[in-house]
Recover the amino acids of this structure.
DNA sequence: CACTTGACCTGTCCGC
DNA sequence: TGCGGACAGGTCAAGT
């Protein structure tokens, strides 16, 4: 579930704590979660200082003084939670003191000791990972970053970029195209469903059959939905929390996601759940209709 | 090449 | 109450 708004919320939280801290040690309970060789860890991670916390799509990037960058993908159930050493940072009164104090727990995969605190990478389903790659040329050399589409919330992102990326995917469903990280970066299942509802487009509509008016609506909807979610701290279903262990509140405002059986806020018809692009998909069958095929 | 499906995992929920 | 199976969803590999 961590999609762009959740990852951005995590990044924002970590940015407060991580820069200028030195990595003292890194240990893991599941080798795939910390995919860094012993030699690289010893020479480029331990003793290096974190310079900043960045995000590209759903990926967290932390450049180090060693010339390497820590890359972290949360995939579905990943959490990055920071705990300061006692007497600093959050203070005794912060609302998730109990959650943070319980770490590590059985889903903790990586523990990174820092100068002034500890970073926990928790990941119930073990799909996420922490890697280390050279900062120089990272965006050209990393296979994932190299083909990642534009950042939808950048001011420089245009409808023309959105439209031309979609032209190459005209035979696939609009939902599959939105989830394709090479079309645009950061949209996952929640925001795909929410923005398709906002734009009144059925998720199984072929990209080539979506009218120009609706495509423009969708372009705006993606940005609106994700901006709103960032302002609400993201979406917390089961697992997601931010760097301080706080949940996000966006799902309270969701119109269709996980709302099957309840009334559509636009027309009152019942929201239903279908399958599209291999994923559970939530629509209002009255507001979102597949266009009738000609002939 | 365009596109879809299965694998990677664990925890939860549902039906019997 | 226990057990099997479906499901959750980001990305890559493998398949059509």
């Amino acid at each position: 579930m961590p999609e762009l708004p959740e990852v951005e919320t995590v990044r924002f939280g970590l940015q407060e704590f991580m820069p200028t801290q030195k990595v003292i040690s890194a240990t893991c309970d599941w080798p795939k979660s910390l995919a860094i060789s012993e030699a690289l860890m010893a020479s480029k991670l331990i003793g290096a200082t974190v310079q900043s916390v960045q995000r590209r799509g759903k990926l967290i990037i932390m450049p180090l003084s060693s010339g390497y960058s820590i890359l972290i993908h949360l995939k579905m159930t990943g959490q990055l939670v920071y705990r300061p050493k006692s007497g600093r940072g959050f203070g005794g009164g912060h609302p998730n003191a109990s959650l943070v104090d319980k770490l590590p727990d059985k889903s903790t995969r990586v523990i990174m000791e820092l100068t002034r605190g500890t970073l926990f990478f928790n990941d119930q389903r073990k799909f996420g990972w922490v890697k280390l790659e050279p900062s120089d040329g990272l965006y050209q050399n990393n296979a994932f970053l190299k083909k990642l589409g534009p950042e939808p919330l950048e001011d420089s992102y245009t409808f023309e970029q959105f439209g031309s990326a979609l032209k190459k995917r005209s035979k696939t469903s609009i939902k599959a195209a939105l989830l394709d990280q090479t079309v645009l970066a950061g949209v996952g299942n929640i925001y795909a469903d929410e923005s398709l509802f906002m734009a009144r487009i059925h998720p199984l509509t072929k990209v080539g059959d979506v009218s120009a008016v609706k495509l423009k609506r969708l372009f705006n909807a993606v940005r609106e939905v994700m901006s709103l979610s960032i302002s609400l701290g993201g979406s917390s279903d089961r697992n997601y929390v931010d760097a301080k262990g706080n949940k996000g509140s966006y799902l309270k405002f969701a119109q269709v996601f996980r709302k099957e059986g309840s009334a559509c806020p636009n027309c009152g018809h019942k929201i239903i759940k279908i399958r599209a692009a291999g994923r559970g998909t939530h629509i209002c069958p009255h507001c979102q209709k597949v266009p009738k095929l000609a002939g």
